[in-house]
Design a protein that fits this description.
The complex is a heterotrimer. By secondary structure, chain A is an all-alpha fold. By secondary structure, chain B is an alpha/beta fold. At the B-C interface, helix 2, helix 3, helix 5, helix 6 and helix 7 of B face helix 1, helix 9 and helix 10 of C.
Chain lengths: ~350, ~240, ~350
Amino acid sequence: MTRLLSGDLPRSRILALVLLLIFLGLAFAPFLTSGARPLNTGATICVYVVLVASYDLLLGYTGIVSFAHTMFYGIGAYGIGLGLSSVDEPTWTAALTGLGLALLLALVLALVVGLFALRVRAIFYAMITLAVASSFAVLASQLSDFTGGEDGKTFSVPEVLSPGFTLVETEVFGRSIDGKFLTYYLVFFGCLALFLFLLRLVNSPFGRVLQAIRENEFRAEALGYRTVVYRIWANCLAALVAALAGALMALWLRYVGPKTSLGFEVMTDILLIVVIGGMGTMYGAVVGAALFILAQNYLKELMAHGSAAMEGVPLLAAALHPDRWMLWLGVLFVLSIYFFPIGIVGKLRLRSYLARR
Amino acid sequence: MPEPLLTLSGVHTHIGQYHILQGVDLVVPRGELSVLLGRNGAGKTTTLRTIMGLWKASAGSITFDGQDITKLATPDIARLGIAYVPESMAVFSDLTVRENLHLAARNGPMDQARVDWIFGFFPALKKFWNYPAGNLSGGQKQMVAIARAIVEPRKLLLVDEPTKGLAPSIVQSLIAAFRELKELETTILLVEQNFNFVRSLGDTVSVMDDGRVAHAGSMAALAGDDELQQRLLGLSLASHQ
Amino acid sequence: MSASLPLASTDTPLPAAKRDIAPLLLIPVLALLMLPLVGSFPTWVTLTVAGLAMGMMIFIMASGLTLVFGLMDVLNFGHGAFVSVGAFAATLVLLPMRGWLEADSLLLNLGVLGLAVTLAMVVTALLGWAFERIIIMPVYGQHLKQILITMGGMIVAEQLINVIWGAETIPLPLPTSLRGAIFLGDAAIEKYRLLAVVVGLVVFAVLFLTLNRTKIGLLIRAGVENRDMVESLGYRIRRLFVAVFAAGSALAGLGGVMWGLYKETLSAAMGSETIVMIFIVIIIGGLGSVGGCFIGALLMALVANYAGFLAPKFALVSNIALMIAVLMWRPAGLYSKSRG
């Protein structure tokens, strides 16, 4: 087990329990739940875990603030989407070609932005990535002939993954082994693999250098590490993983669009999750993503009830309206930066550490 | 013996995790030019910055003119009559020479007589009066930095390595300026690495090493004692020519 | 003792006071270069005025941010919130006083606009003051947290706008006497754009004079370069911070009102929509430089307008392309005030 987790153990019994629950929940989601919505929640959690974990590589481990992460996520998604929608018969070849091109684009962009901007101050880099990402988003929605514009594109997936397909006739534990089922496990195992890869990365010598750079760049340089090279590597790797996450999401949704892949909302979601979950922990992404997506899906209902109950009170009703989900998230975000800077995982580990002394 | 103007007692300063000052005891007598010697990394600049409040002492006390200034904020320390000329000179490049001095003249418009007196040491300042200070050479910037510190009378001047990298001719102007300031009863604490520059100027000398004052005494005694110099030479009283 | 050595400086000739005007020349050069490409003079005039007007508004919005960053070393990723709040606050005057807006009298129109702008600036100044004390002060010097927390602040502010003013966009028609255009020969110049240019120039002049002719301006300019030294000269510069922040927020509010009228529509997201342009402008201009911000804003808007006419597909990325081009020439922006 330790080998599998690359030596990065939860170090807190509560955390280990939570992680186990999340893992089991996701692994057996098709059997534990029925209906489209919970499965969708599960797949979204899987993808977001990887998306946020790859961002944590940049932010938590290397100390780089980038707003271009959703751009790479979107590139991966569009790679699959455009690949599959450009042919009449959805084939694996089409999908993989699209994905390959997307990964290439992501790599090139990450390299270019990195080479250009990682030499400058962190603030500059943050602003430049914001500008680049928003330009990209504008391009994606404006070049509608190519990308499907604002509405995005729906497409069909290879036969094995399509809803109509069934692998075996008999049902297993009451669930039919259909395309949706298979897609779910593709997403699940793909995300699991990517997450374990990231875990391995941050616990390798490479990962340690990244952390050294985050702590004290001068010293790292003095010790002989060419920090620019390392940061560019981190940038590229994070971008590639994000792109792969995007690709998996696209396969699941059978749809790509600027709002779901490139919007600023996704970026803020990532930031929220990584801060609340705990920066620089990887597991923070798991706990944070699970909490966030679950809350996003089910809390909104609560808010709707609350809003209806507050019908008469003017501002309160509006504040509790489910569309104002972001308001409460924003408040939680600001509060966690103040009072909760180490995030949930950090807090749990700290408690466990203090308890052991 | 009148009370010293500035006293440091057991001052410790930490910068991040680094323990730079490890119990500095320093006495700066009134009206004298005290020299703080020591090699790079001994803690001289840190001492000045700690006096100025730019870095906070983690332990010990600093007394100026009878008042404990250890915990005061930098602007308040400055207002008590201490002027600081940092090693980097910290001249405002975008501001003209005139504006640099104008900013330093807190108590109202600059006294023309005083300014003329400054021009006497540093004629270049008169020439470049309305030029952005960033356009000046290193030596001229040093003149601006010092002029800022003396444009109004101050009780104590903290000067950090003013002669570093300067042409000998400018060094002469500095010596003349310091001499006259002493005559005007200004107390000066001068950090230097160039012993030959200070041996004729200084009255008191303290030698720092590893965050502490290793030797304190009169300059005359040190200047006349070759053997003592040799011993402290292990602490690199470098003679930069 | 070499008393005979002359002091070197009295012999060397005076160097010319270097005035870095190359960036300033970019604007007229660009405009003139575009004239033959655009072809028709009247169209060129319209495009140029449109660019200048848009640039002025962005300058007004961005000027506060660049000063705040230069002086306080705080990057306020929530600056867009003041743009939105300013615009919405203005509606508190403009909507009830609709009559004055619709009257065909320049005096009444300008009057109600003046009132609206004053209210907007007061509200955003107060909000800025609160924002600085509550959200930013606890995280001085921690850039990462500043970025995150100010973004969070902006999200909250925008959502609160939705709570208070509702979630739909609010249409904001131009005042009657400012609608339409005046004609210089064949060239049509929209009246509102002319007003925007005038206001922008006034704001720039006020900022310029304050920075260069007053003691406070002196403190700000020195503080942008070296805060420690200003404190060592005896000034409690941190007290100035809040004032500068509030002033910057008020300017953003003013910009927001003007932008809202320009687009004739308000939405809570207008702040985050303009923030990218604002960032590009202050990067181009150089963090901390008001002059650079001015030139950067005009450049960006002019390029966007010319590109929109000449090569619409390119116009989508013209902002980024301009930013890259400028950074290649001057990596720290047109006028860099960076501390060593």
